[in-house]
User: Which sequence fits this backbone?
């Protein structure tokens, strides 16, 4: 418990980590209270198409007359949720692979790590495009596509942590006293790995948010679930960049994506510094 | 990949279907199809596009030079900028300039690349009119010689800057970490004690050793950069492989998709071979 | 005038809770041809002393005070550009981990050549290369290794290369910081004999920083004993062996295992080295000393002469009482 408090102190002594947390909490609040905050229903036509910003519609209206501000506010929900869920899927696979590979070693390790190497080298985005196009546009398909194609780098990080723990002697001792593999993994390997898993989850979320926006931008997302990427997709296909509309239609969603990704990155980095003291200054 | 069947074929009548399957050799057993496919790749034949009926080899080789132009320019620029900035930051570790640089690159990393492209198009293309916003050259202008080169360069600038913003951060971060590591080595201290100037220590003693992991990262990132090119080519309607792949995927044009993946794989492998030539130049321990 | 005069050299390290007083008021003289040993347990400031003498302390370390006078010039007051001309030319160092002191990317000959060309710009390429080959021969390495890369060399060979490198610009003083720690005993002996011979032949001053009592007493003619960042006793090797004064020096030598008398009780020094971050102003050996008295708690004793060539920082000796 003392260690936890120390780490908490260390985390908050990192200004950037604190800034990231504040921003993220802000986004989470917006996501939860989107219906209360948003002035309109983003799926409802409330004005003229391509409306300029006005007192009624601060960010104007889109090509079918929906309020862009409301779209953006509701988009927080979808983008944040998709990022977290995709990262979750990636981490579940990555953790299983990393634990198995690190704990059992030998041939299993060789095979799994070769798979990791291959998936790190292949161009991920084209593969995602392919898979997303094949599965068809839906919220869960995008989550799954990003998740199952992003497990490799967390798997590698987790594996190296498992290896460090495994070499600490006491694991040998537990093995020698006849502890079952499943017992050793859940009782002795998983707990000290958890902090790494969490920091990876955070870093993965930031990447997943970017990937989701890319896929949605290419028109592979679910048009009934308006994420920030989808808003940008419509802005692009209606050539918003040719007129002044880019200022209220293109700029805000992109800035929000950047801000959210930065907040995750700051949190992830400062967590990583706690988990991996070597990185500390 | 043959098992993925596009929607179009479902809509066809059974005779049409049989004809199409016959033409593309899809009525044979899967294993035989696979052997045929490998065999024809070896002959340089990537099959025919379902859509345009043109040979995939032709389509791909028409697009490949543009992607290479874009990617190579990107790699060169990203590496130079990333290495220079990473060295600078590492040398001034913990000081203001290091913190500023770190935050700039975190920011770069956090922006969606296609969005940067859109903003560039809106501001520097549509608004200011400095750069063309579409394609790789002004096909209808009929430029020749030097004018043509300038035209191609002008078309290249915005997509390249966008791609550099996307790829430079990881090179910067790797260089910075690697440089910090190297600067802590005893031979750097030794070089300083010998009375060498900071510049000499930095560029002859530290740089060369710090570059080794950067080569690895650049090569590992080839795939990522090509992937990045997919989306940026789409934003700028740049006629490269990335855009071709995207079009093929939306059209379910499987031979073209396969052809694209085949070419991308070749590029990644080629990059790794090049890396194997670079390592011994930097590190005498690798022979 | 002595070859090298170190006066009140004081180096602190900045930490979050205050300064770590790693080196406090180091003072000694070194004559040409003299071999001075600096010994003490790990963390006593030996290495800090070495780097401070070269004015090579980097952040978070900082030289707070003192002079290092070589040839009448104070190294500490020099700016970087002046210092660069003096380093290696007049004072060279064989660092602790000579194993890693060679850049893996360059041929060893090139790395020695680099120093020569820097400090003797008028020397021709052929002369400089010939000098490197001569140096390699001097330290017992075949000149063909000029073109060898560091990873091809054994630890002992690298050590010799570093010695050759230290000698390359004919310095007046060489500091050897644990240069032979970690080598095989036989190679260690060879290398030390070589160093001593060169020092005597060329009349240069040698400072040997080590924790190895036997080695230091065997090769040095004067010895400084360091404890917790301070010099507690400075005298001839003879005096250290026959007539040690400071309680720490005595404890240090009685903690040695006597090869002739295995029954002799090995006394260890109780307690631990005090923390050096914002230390109290009492004798730094106070907590572990078995002869302390109230005076020791009031003020840290300074190093005073008790006889010719014998200086001790202890209230028990001389007229240190105020």
Assistant:
């Amino acid at each position: 418990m003392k260690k936890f408090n120390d780490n908490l102190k260390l985390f908050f002594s990192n200004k950037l980590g604190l800034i990231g947390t504040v921003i993220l909490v802000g986004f989470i609040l917006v996501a939860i209270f989107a219906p209360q905050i948003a002035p309109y229903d983003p799926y409802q036509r409330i004005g003229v198409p391509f409306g300029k910003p006005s007192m009624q519609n601060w960010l104007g209206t889109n090509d079918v007359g929906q309020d862009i501000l409301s779209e953006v506010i509701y988009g927080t929900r979808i983008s944040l949720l998709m990022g977290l869920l995709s990262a979750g899927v990636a981490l579940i696979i990555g953790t299983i692979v990393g634990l198995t590979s690190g704990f059992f070693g030998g041939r299993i390790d060789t095979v799994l790590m070769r798979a990791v190497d291959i998936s790190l080298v292949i161009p991920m985005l084209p593969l995602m495009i392919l898979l997303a196009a094949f599965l068809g546009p839906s919220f869960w398909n995008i989550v799954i596509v990003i998740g199952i194609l992003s497990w490799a780098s967390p798997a590698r990080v987790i594996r190296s942590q498992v290896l460090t723990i495994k070499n600490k002697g006491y694991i040998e001792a537990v093995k020698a006293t006849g502890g079952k593999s499943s017992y050793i993994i859940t009782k002795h390997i998983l707990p000290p790995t958890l902090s790494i898993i969490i920091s990876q989850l955070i870093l993965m979320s930031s990447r997943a948010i970017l990937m989701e926006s890319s896929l949605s931008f290419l028109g592979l997302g679910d048009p009934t679930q308006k994420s920030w990427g989808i808003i940008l997709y419509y802005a692009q296909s209606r050539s918003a960049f040719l007129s002044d509309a880019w200022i209220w239609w293109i700029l805000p969603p992109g800035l929000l994506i950047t801000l959210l990704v930065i907040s995750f990155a700051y949190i992830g980095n400062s967590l990583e510094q706690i988990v991996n003291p070597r990185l500390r200054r | 990949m043959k098992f993925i069947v596009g929607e179009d074929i479902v809509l066809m009548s059974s005779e049409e279907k049989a004809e199409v399957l016959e033409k593309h050799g899809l009525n044979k057993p899967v294993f035989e199809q696979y052997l045929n496919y490998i065999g024809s790749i070896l002959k340089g034949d990537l099959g025919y596009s379902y859509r345009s009926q043109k040979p995939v080899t032709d389509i791909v080789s028409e697009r490949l030079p543009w992607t290479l132009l874009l990617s190579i320019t990107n790699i060169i620029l990203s590496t130079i900028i990333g290495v220079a900035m990473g060295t600078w930051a590492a040398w001034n570790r913990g000081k203001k300039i290091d913190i500023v640089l770190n935050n700039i690159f975190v920011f770069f990393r956090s922006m969606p690349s296609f969005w940067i492209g859109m903003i560039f198009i809106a501001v520097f293309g549509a608004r200011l009119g400095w750069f063309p916003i579409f394609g790789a050259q002004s096909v209808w202008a009929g430029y020749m010689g030097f004018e043509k080169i300038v035209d191609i360069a002008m078309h290249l600038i915005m997509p390249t800057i966008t791609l550099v913003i996307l790829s430079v951060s990881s090179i910067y971060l790797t260089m910075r970490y690697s440089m910090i590591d190297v600067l802590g080595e005893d031979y750097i201290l030794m070089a300083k004690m010998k009375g060498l100037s900071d510049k000499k220590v930095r560029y002859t003693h530290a740089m060369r050793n710090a570059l080794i992991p950067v080569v690895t990262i650049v090569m590992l990132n080839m795939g990522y950069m090509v992937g990045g090119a997919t989306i940026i080519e789409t934003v700028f309607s740049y006629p490269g492989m990335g855009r071709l792949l995207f079009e093929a995927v939306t059209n379910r044009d499987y031979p073209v998709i396969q052809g694209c993946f085949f070419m991308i794989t070749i590029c990644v492998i080629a990059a790794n071979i090049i890396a194997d030539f670079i390592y011994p130049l930097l590190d005498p321990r690798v022979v | 005038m002595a070859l090298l005069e170190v006066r009140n050299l004081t180096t602190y390290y900045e930490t979050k809770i205050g300064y770590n007083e790693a080196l406090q008021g180091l003072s000694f003289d070194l004559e040409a041809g003299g071999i001075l040993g600096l010994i003490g347990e790990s963390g006593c400031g030996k290495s800090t002393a070495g780097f401070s003498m070269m004015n090579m302390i980097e952040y978070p370390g900082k030289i707070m005070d003192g002079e290092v006078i070589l040839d009448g010039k104070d190294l500490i007051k020099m700016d970087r550009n002046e210092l660069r001309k003096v380093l290696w030319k007049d004072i060279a160092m064989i660092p602790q981990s000579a194993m890693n002191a060679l850049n893996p990317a360059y041929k060893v000959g090139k790395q020695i050549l680099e120093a020569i060309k820097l400090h003797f710009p008028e020397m021709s390429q052929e002369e400089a290369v010939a000098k490197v080959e001569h140096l390699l021969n001097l330290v017992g390495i075949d000149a063909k290794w000029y073109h060898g890369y560091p990873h091809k060399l054994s630890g002992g060979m690298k050590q010799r290369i570093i010695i050759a490198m230290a000698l390359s610009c004919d310095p007046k003083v060489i500091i050897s910081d644990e240069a032979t720690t970690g080598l095989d005993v036989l190679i260690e002996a060879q290398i030390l004999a070589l160093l001593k011979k060169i020092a005597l032949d060329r009349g240069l001053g040698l400072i040997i920083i080590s924790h190895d009592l036997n080695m230091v007493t065997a090769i040095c003619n004067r010895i400084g004993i360091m404890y917790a960042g301070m010099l507690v006793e400075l005298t001839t090797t003879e005096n250290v062996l026959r007539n040690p004064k400071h309680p720490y020096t005595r404890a240090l030598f009685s903690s040695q295992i006597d090869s002739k008398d295995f029954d002799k009780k090995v006394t260890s020094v109780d307690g631990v080295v005090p923390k050096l971050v914002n230390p109290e102003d009492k004798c730094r050996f106070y907590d572990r000393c078995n002869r302390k008295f109230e005076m020791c708690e009031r003020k840290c004793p300074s190093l005073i002469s008790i006889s010719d060539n014998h200086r001790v920082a202890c209230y028990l000796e001389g007229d240190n009482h105020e």
Q: What stands out?
A: Confidence is low (pLDDT under 50) at residues 1-7 of chain B.
